[in-house]
Amino acid sequence: xxxxxxxxxxxxxxxxxxxxxxxxxxxxxxxxxxxxxxxxxxxxxxxxxxxxxxxxxxxxxxxxxxxxxxxxxxxxxxxxxxxxxxxxxxxxxxxxxxxxxxxxxxxxxxxxxxxxxxxxxxxxxxxxxxxxxxxxxxxxxxxxxxxxxxxxxxxxxxxxxxxxxxxxxxxxxxxxxxxxxxxxxxxxxxxxxxxxxxxxxxxxxxxxxxxxxxxxxxxxxxxxxxxxxxxxxxxxxxxxxxxxxxxxxxxxxxxxxxxxxxxxxxxxxxxxxxxxxxxxxxxxxxxxxxxxxxxxxxxxxxxxxxxxxxxxxxxxxxxxxxxxxxxxxxxxxxxxxxxxxxxxxxxxxxxxxxxxxxxxxxxxxxxxxxxx
Length: 372
Description:
Blueprint: H1 3-21, H2 44-51, H3 115-118, E1 163-164, E2 189-190, H4 201-204, H5 241-256, E3 262-263, H6 272-284, E4 299-304, E5 317-321, H7 326-343, H8 355-358, E6 360-365, H9 367-371
Parallel strand pairs: 1-2
Antiparallel strand pairs: 3-6, 4-5, 4-6
Protein name: Energy transducer TonB
Region (Disordered): 53-241
């Protein structure tokens, strides 16, 4: 069992037990004695009066002269006594009723958890995922199958009974209650099989060890249908037998590791000196960046020459390349194309009597030959 699952289960069980039985181990807090104090409320003026000191009575001193004898007609004059100011009576303190202090509310005991909490289903550990022994990420990507059509998006092989069309549609089944004037049922159509890139010989090598696909079932006769307009496709002229021989020779040179700027013969063979002269002429203008990914890509270019040895610019095309991403293959192709056009601007030095031989040329550009 996974250690993390055990630890998680033990922690959850301890938490549930503490919530259920935690109050049994808690002691009630001691009750505190409440002290009640009686206070009186007075204003600020009353407080100022109470704070003043009491004034002493002003006693007059006896006169040094003796009092004159009173006359019988006049009443004896008595010295006027200065009355001392009487102190103001203190205001009676207003006793306010003592404020009743509410006793501190004791914490209410927590209600016991319902019994159904304890009956919760235990958390079952997640069973470990069994290792099937197959790493899907380690499986090699299926190499594309060479097809005759290259499109921006790859299209699978159509069904045997499907009609080739630009738009894929599903066949409609005839309804037993169809009206006489109902439109005819449509057949299943599918676009022709296509690939999103050119499949090279290096990509085809990965299919040698793969299981052979099952043969297609025999095509059943198709019901007569209205003729559909054929899709617009680019018309490619079939290569001549001399070009086929040149392509076969270029493939043999690439597989045997001839490398470099090799020449694929077409028609009557050229001499070794004439081949080396053409190879060296192209190699002088070929620039390879040793640090770029294009330095590890081998490309094969086909082009045509005029009778004066000049390159027909619109005849240059890439017919084969080794494994590499699209950016590296594009860079290697542009480098080889510039080398052919730059060195052939004034015409290659080839024998004019053998123009039928070198009219169509294929050159293999292998950067590893330059590093050796």
